[in-house]
Amino acid sequence: MTKYILLVIVAYLVGSIPFSYITAKFIGNIDIRKHGSGNSGATNVLRTLGPKAGAIAFILDFLKGFILALIGEKLLGSQGGAIASTFVVIGHCYPFSLGFKGGKGVATAGGTIFALYPLIGVILLIIHFSITGLTRMVSLASITVAASFPILCFIFKEPIPFILYALCLGSFVIYKHKANIKRLLAGTESKIHFKK
Q: pLDDT band for position 130 (50/70/90)?
């Protein structure tokens, strides 16, 4: 039980490292929460500061999910991987370091998926890039990927803990995009554009 508790704490703390916020401060000398959508995630960094800053923020957020998922799986098997993945994403979305207001978890969740089940990660990445390329709407791509994740896990007959994680994570990411869904339905969702 102690190992599980420690894993939860470490995963949350690492998830709480606000790499997108730090990247925006370092590269653009801005508080990303006061620009664009106000979200402290990689997509807002991309829209506000351009592809270089956006890529750095994405990679760092991705890596914290990737590394923690691998650690969890190595220590406690598939159940540990699912637990670490869950709490690193929660830490990203609700970081104590930013008053519990973080990003939407897509990059960090993506890291956990690639660490544990890379084939599913590749399929979801292709779906994400395809929809983003066709519509220029990152939010629509993220919502579609979130809905596809548990379905793919079921199709590939992944372990039950990971299927449950996929279902919870997919639902959570969709919930975090509730404002985007309203704008998509209203036809007012913004498309990707670069200021720099």
A: very high
